[in-house]
Amino acid sequence: MNSPQQILFSNDIPASLGALLSDMEPAGVFVVTDTNVERIVLPGLGLDCPVIAIPPGDSHKDLSSLSAVWERLVELGANRRSVIVNIGGGVVTDLGGFAAATFKRGLRFVNVPTTLLSAVDAAVGGKTGINFCGLKNEVGAFAPAAGVVISASTFSTLPPAELLSGYAEMIKHALLSSAEDYAGILAFSPLEGDEDRLLGLLSSSVNVKRRIVAEDPSERGLRRALNLGHTVGHAFESLALAGRSPLPHGHAVAAGLVAELVMSHLHKGFPTSLIYPLRDFIKDNGYMLPAFSCDDYPRLLALMSHDKKNEKAGSINFTLLSAPGEASIDCNFGPDEVSPALDIYRDLME
Amino acid sequence: MNSPQQILFSNDIPASLGALLSDMEPAGVFVVTDTNVERIVLPGLGLDCPVIAIPPGDSHKDLSSLSAVWERLVELGANRRSVIVNIGGGVVTDLGGFAAATFKRGLRFVNVPTTLLSAVDAAVGGKTGINFCGLKNEVGAFAPAAGVVISASTFSTLPPAELLSGYAEMIKHALLSSAEDYAGILAFSPLEGDEDRLLGLLSSSVNVKRRIVAEDPSERGLRRALNLGHTVGHAFESLALAGRSPLPHGHAVAAGLVAELVMSHLHKGFPTSLIYPLRDFIKDNGYMLPAFSCDDYPRLLALMSHDKKNEKAGSINFTLLSAPGEASIDCNFGPDEVSPALDIYRDLME
Q1: Residue B103 C-alpha, separation from nearest chain A C-alpha, in angstroms
Q2: Which residue from A minimizes the CA distance to B134?
Q3: Fewer CB within 10 A of the terminal residue: chain A, N end or C end?
Q4: Residues B58-98: pLDDT tens digits?
Q5: 3-class secondary structure per residue, B228-295
Q6: A90–chain B nearest CA distance, Å
Q7: Residue B249 vs residues B91, B206, B241, B255, B256: alpha-carbon distances, Å
């Protein structure tokens, strides 16, 4: 499990996957995917190996699907020298990675993310797992994929809202990287359909995450910087879900990034001149935005204080920036100190 | 997960466990055990923390018990800074260790083995897991306990057959260590009830395993030496189970050790003068022995070739010794080459 992870960026999945697998000399290859990806993506890849398909969607990222994957691996005779190839979005790479990491105490696995969100977020970094008792990723393991093939070639079948969702995480990585990366990411739109340029940006973006994860694989310190935008973003997401008008994860994160850049401005001097371009990007590309008024503040602030990243009761934990690339983790504030940023966020986005 | 493992040898469990836990500064402590140990051992430990008890026995080392432990951890509010203390035999340390290693992607855990077999074998080395689809330890993880308290003070309630079972693994470790350790281990009997001397021998024995595991944590090479006695031992165990007269694991291993020392003599020159003392020890202490005749050879040899440690079809993989402390792993033989050793084993044991 401790060999270095190989990440290939390529719009030719079959060639890259073939190269990765032939280096690994597997005793057998087994694909884990979902039934949508099996129908839409797999025929184009020309793979010749057994396929284990789970039902699509986050509600199936559960113990019952996990147990079904383990059972099929037993039936198919997978052994310690077999390799699992997870092809799909975050549900497939998280669940398939966990199944591989625990079958016979650990098979090697390769991830082939087919959505922008999983390419930029879920496929690298070694977090695997399932939802349990209604809690997201409550059970899992830190287990890095032996290899990852990152490609933009499967994105053409994705709806625009899903591309925008994944792109929000790329904006976050650019903010954690440098002013140049941040300007570069806002100068492109994933809706343009330029797979080659998108792949280039993805490559920089994934490498930002990879550097951070390499310094802190089990999330004890620096890796929390990746939580940028997510303290407020998760609260927006939960509020929308409770109001029965769900907001896709990355859309909530995009709005959360604006709110946390406002916090960064108020407490760390992040320049406002770098907040407007993000606001404009979000509006121009048609991101879905959270609907809330000041009546919702108590609820939103309570959601933020209950986030699992908080270790101090009653306070809210943020990653803030003094400038792009200059992050401070573990900035703690009381709910009263967060309300003004929500006011400014609403002014900005109106 | 990568901090060094602390192993304390002590016949005062409460003091040692208290010292281990206070070093770890846990946000909360949760005990995983089985209902027998809960009734017999826990009252004497004076612990003041929530207890999660699974039903006793290997048949409950399954997904349903694992899921029940995860559920209780959710209900009890365990978080990433909590510590799980597994108190029990190998079923509890294997399952509780796996539950801890996967809850919220990994809590720290401490093992307190209460049987001789788990003290010498299951509590050190980082193998955790459950049985799945009728296969032993089919699902699990390599996850070392942060700490282990090894004590002989709980053994007085164990039946003699169980003490002998655990002692067979200590004989194996002594054979892998040195002629002195081998002579020392045969000069004592676990049935004598001398807890302090047993603890001293346990300490040497566990350290033999620890050294081997440290050099090969994920069982790619050297660690297979720990399979000594188990190729034939597992076959004896399975044959007895199929004949509905189950043989406890360590009793099968003791017989397996004799058979594999005979193989070692035939192929590596292991001195016969060092086989007789083991034969005498087994007979004098009343180990249960496998009942078989030459009619059972085909079945026994087939069981050996299907052992999961075999990677070459049709051949049988052994660890053999040229002398105590001098092991060769991956010695492969065809079934025909193993039959003569079974003949000699039967002559010796009659």
Answers
A1: 5
A2: A74
A3: C
A4: 999 999 999 999 999 999 999 999 999 999 999 999 999 99
A5: CCHHHHHHHHHHHHHCCCCCCHHHHHHHHHHHHHHHHHHHHCCCHHHCHHHHHHHHHHCCCCCCCCHH
A6: 16
A7: 13, 18, 11, 10, 10
- Alpha-carbon distance values, A73 to A31, A80, A85, B83, B288 (Å): 10, 11, 12, 32, 37
Residue A113: strand pairing partners: A88
CB-CB under 8 Å, B135 with A74: yes
Contacts of A101 in chain B (CB under 8 A): 141
Beta carbons of A208 and A201 less than 8 angstroms apart: no
Contacts of A106 in chain B (CB under 8 A): 141-142, 218
Token readout for B236 is 């004896």
Give the pLDDT confidence of A286-298 residue by residue, as tens digits: 999 999 999 999 9
Task: Please give the Cα distance from A98 to B67 (Å, whole number).
Answer: 15
A71 contact residues in B (CB cutoff 8 A) = 133
Compute the count of residue pairs across chains A and B with CB atoms less than 8 Å apart.
71
Could you tell me which residues are beta bridge partners of residue A320? A328
How many C-beta atoms lie closer than 10 Å to residue A42's C-beta? 17
Phi first, then psi, for residue B245 (nearest 5°) are: -130, 75
Chain B residues with CB inside 8 Å of A132's CB?
70, 74
In one-letter notation, the amino acid at residue A14 is P
CB B161, CB B168: distance < 8 Å: no
**CA distances in angstroms from A78 to A32, A83, B270, listed in the order given:** 13, 8, 37
Distance of CA B165 to CAs B160, B225, B248, B282, B289, Å? 9, 19, 7, 11, 12
Angstrom CA distances, A203 to A169, A174, A197, A229, A301, stand at 13, 11, 10, 21, 35
ipTM rounded to 2 decimals: 0.88
Q: Give A220 to chain B, closest Cα distance, Å.
A: 10
